Amino acid sequence: MRAVDDTVSAGAFVRPSTSHPGADTMSYTSSTGAPSRRDVANLLKGAAGALTKTRRGPDQGEGRRVPRRDSYDQDDPRAKPWGRIGDGTTGEGLAHREALLTSAEELFELGRRETPAAKLREARARFDALSAELDAGGLPVGRAATIRQELAPLRELIETGRQRLQLVDLRVLKALLRFVDFKTGRLFPAIEAIAAKAACHRNSVVAALRRLKHHGFIDWVRRTIKTGNDGEFAPQREQTSNAYFFDNRRRMAPKVWQRFAQILAAKMRRLGNAAARAMSEAPTAEIQSPALRAALARVDAMLANANT
Question: Are 218 and 210 in contact (CB under 8 A)?
Fold first, then answer.
């Protein structure tokens, strides 16, 4: 058995190689031949599992959703980033939903005009050709610098094309918004549920959500739940669906946010909230009517939607 020395003061122990599946998993000290404390603990856990007729579940793959970094328990306040949509009524909730969808559709059309597919294909082909030339070496003096200068804008254009909204993103956003509770803002559908409503593969949903998040239409917090294996030699927590929320004012690009605010204000006016206004920072005279002040506050809350 090939061994690698691990020095621990004077009593160095030897740990066998585990580079292949058949390698031994028990470690022994070189002086006494006794197993390490870790091995003893593993043996005890295995014995406890045998006595209770339980076994450890898979760490990865089907049947196991390993908790990811920056995840919170579903009962943790940080896993509940929601806020009421407008005043919580169906009318204002639908206005918010339609404003998001309309602004997303406009951004999709803008991206398609500014970075058409043909232009992106040409950029990728040119990028690959220049990269191959640079990697080949043996270039004349100054050619490498010229290539790098040409690669920089091509790389930026390709990245812009990669992040631009796709048609499937609009379907995914529409499907996601069907799950929102306007009264509370609660929104935590599983990826599979979104995929079913959007009629697309879950991988398409994952990619679409990333692009929508990049453009500020949605955001989310990862959540975990208990597995119910308390006291057992088995995983105690696993990943569950994300908690989605809207942080549009801070996440959207300024022009996208301004357009979204305009659309939302127009829809609010159609609902009868004539006091709805876009994001003007100019001071206004104090409004005496309590009802009008309440309407303005609701519109401001929807436009700000820092926590909705």
Answer: no
